[in-house]
Write a structure and sequence with these properties.
With about 280 residues, the protein is α+β, with helices and mostly antiparallel strands. About 65% of the residues lie in helices and about 10% in strands. It has 3 domains: about 60 residues, no CATH class; about 120 residues, Alpha-Beta Plaits (2-Layer Sandwich); about 70 residues.
């Protein structure tokens, strides 16, 4: 019981001592707030933005490798190199504080065509002090990808493949249309009583024509999406502040309070040590 009472007395005496030094504590906190406010006001505001899209010609791992020089240049703050790679002004490049890339799960809903067609979703995260320049930065990144030799060859290869498919489908549809016209003429003369006798397909002429037309439309859409990178959401559509000024101020204020308490505690210990030396 006596031991508990001693602890209570000790804590009470410590609390009262710190309370007697409230002016020192407030001085530290006020200085911390002023310094923190100055730091926040002097620091440029940073903004994060994400450009979401997908690759229609190569795996996302290939894209991450191709885009890596941009991330490295931003990390090293080599704004001259970054401006050269993105073909943008040095001032805009200097506003870029970070570029990161993430491979996300492929979304087949965006391109619901050939299931063997490569599609990989990629998020490109840009941190900048000039959100008004995000459109310029986005165009720079897209140009950087479109001028890559490997991606250019992959895009052209796919374009050639799809063009051949489109031509083949158009020829088949034209043949069916011609066959239907011929059928109607023959039926009119009474030489043929059933169109299916002229067709080798298990589908009706109408069903086969509809299926081919649908496939043709899908490939035409696919042809338009054959780019180095297909943007689903632009940088300017997802701008957020990357750092909270209120959080910074709160952290600085807490650190100031801790510094004040430590200062008071060490000063008291120093005073007690001096008193002991005087007694000796």
């Amino acid at each position: 019981m006596e031991e508990n009472q001693r602890l209570i007395d000790l804590f009470l005496s410590v609390f009262l001592y710190f309370l007697s030094q409230i002016k020192v504590i407030l001085a530290f906190v006020i200085i911390g707030i002023v310094l923190g406010l100055g730091l926040v006001l002097n620091n440029q505001k940073k903004y994060d933005s994400v450009m979401a899209g997908f690759s229609a010609v190569a795996p996302s791992a290939v894209y991450l490798s191709i885009l890596d020089p941009l991330s490295l240049a931003s990390q090293e703050k080599n704004h001259t190199l970054l401006a050269e790679l993105l073909n943008i002004d040095l001032e805009v490049a200097s506003s870029i504080k970070g570029i990161q890339f993430e491979s996300t799960t492929g979304n087949r809903e965006t391109l619901d065509l050939d299931k063997n067609f490569e599609q990989n979703s990629i998020d490109i995260i840009v941190t900048t002090t000039q959100p008004e320049s995000l459109e310029i930065i986005e165009q720079g990144i897209l140009q950087f990808l479109s001028t890559n030799a490997y991606l250019t060859s992959k895009v052209q290869l796919r374009i050639d493949q799809v063009d051949r498919t489109i031509t083949g489908l158009e020829n088949k549809i034209s043949f069916i249309d011609s066959a239907q016209l011929l059928s109607m003429r023959l039926l009119a003369t009474g030489k043929v009583t059933d169109y299916l006798s002229l067709s080798t397909s298990t589908l009706t002429p109408e069903g086969e024509s509809v299926l081919l037309q649908k496939t043709l439309e899908e490939n035409i859409i696919l042809r338009k999406q054959l780019k180095s990178f297909v943007v689903v959401s632009s940088l300017k559509n997802s701008v957020t502040k990357s750092e909270s000024s209120a959080l910074k101020m709160a952290i600085i204020s807490i650190l100031s309070l801790v510094a004040a308490l430590l200062f008071i505690a060490f000063r008291r210990l120093f005073q007690l040590a001096r008193q002991e030396n005087v007694k000796d």
